[in-house]
Amino acid sequence: MLDKNRTRELLEIGLKSVKADQIEVGIFSTERGTTRFANSIIHQNMVVESPYLWARVILKNKIGGIATKELHPEGVKNAMQKALELAEHQKPDKEFKSLPKPGAKRRIGLKKEPVFVTPEERAKAVEQIVKVCKKDNLEAAGVIHTSRYSLGVANSLGIFNYDWSADTWVSITAMSDDSSGYASAYVKNFDDVDFTALAEKAVEKAIASKNPIEIEPGKYTVLLEEPAVAELISFLDFYEFGAKAYDERRSVISKKMGKRITGKNITIIEDAYHPKTIGLPFDFEGVPKKKVVIIQNGIAKNVVFDSFYAQKLGKKNTGHALPQPNTMGPLPLNLVIKPGKIPRAKMIEAIEKGILVTRFWYTRMVDPDKTLLTGMTRDGTFLIEDGKITKGLKNMRFLINVYETLKSVRLISKETVLCGEGISVVAPAMVIDNFNFASKTHY
Length: 443
Prior knowledge:
alpha+beta; six-stranded antiparallel beta sheet; five-stranded mixed barrel; 9 helices; 22% helix
């Protein structure tokens, strides 16, 4: 992870290396520790540093872009010269108008430089997890990711922004011969994770789901726990909530802006400043991020923009550019689902007969035009009868229209949990009626 002074030095070298109408230079530096374990044994424990610089050089409306990992003065100068040469040979982009100009920002990163988490510290955490699983003769599998990262962006119009942050992602699966249980955590600080309590949660689900029974496919009331809810919403993020899909009229939200697309109890906001989320206060163009209400009480309200699509469509730039070169357009990275009023612990009592889903896996978008999504349950699927969990269930495959499913949300928990990695979702649990399970699985 590069500090502010070194980042500024390299960015200034980039800006001064060539003469052009406009120049943008950015450095994203990550330091990622990964510890993977399976069959209660660590099989990977490493740290990878991935710093890189990217640049855009603009000659009128001809754009040359390049990226390099040669983060030293000569490497930066060589990269900028190549970007200039690429710009000279490009066809004009008639839709490009300008790089963004400076704007006010808020700091949301860590006040102090993030602490490095050693491989030994992660290994000790795995030791705690395995110890809990072994008490009940269960095998432990999963991963611990610890990341520190910094972002610096400068352009010839006066932008210079720098910040850093850190996060820890933990995934635990406890397994028996015929069952499994899952627990996860996504937090800013490694020391905030209670690995023993997290493992106990996974173990509890694995034990409760032993000797699972089959249930026939069909439409059921479901209690989706927070990771399952976050999984559904993250697909809307990719396919629905960005300006490129909106501009190309290939998203549902682009055709129904201002109209109801979910139930009235659904509000989804992009908010990098929410106290539970993790991220940086500006995007990969150095533009401060704005809070954006995407769906409000079921009504489609907005999508997120970068400088290109804001200028093209006559909208305000919301500060959601991704690294260049980028084929996806701007995307939200910090989604927040508005919580409900019912305590999480009371939700099962409201279900006469239904299914509790811990999480989904192998989730895929089948038909983006209809937000038709499929996937399977995993690591803790249970039958609910008369307001109580009675049996573990064998997994099933679902097939749903996400927006139509969000019209059938009966209850939303008042507690929320940060889920995901990269694109994060602050998600509540949800009780949803008429959730379609299309078939059984063999897993």
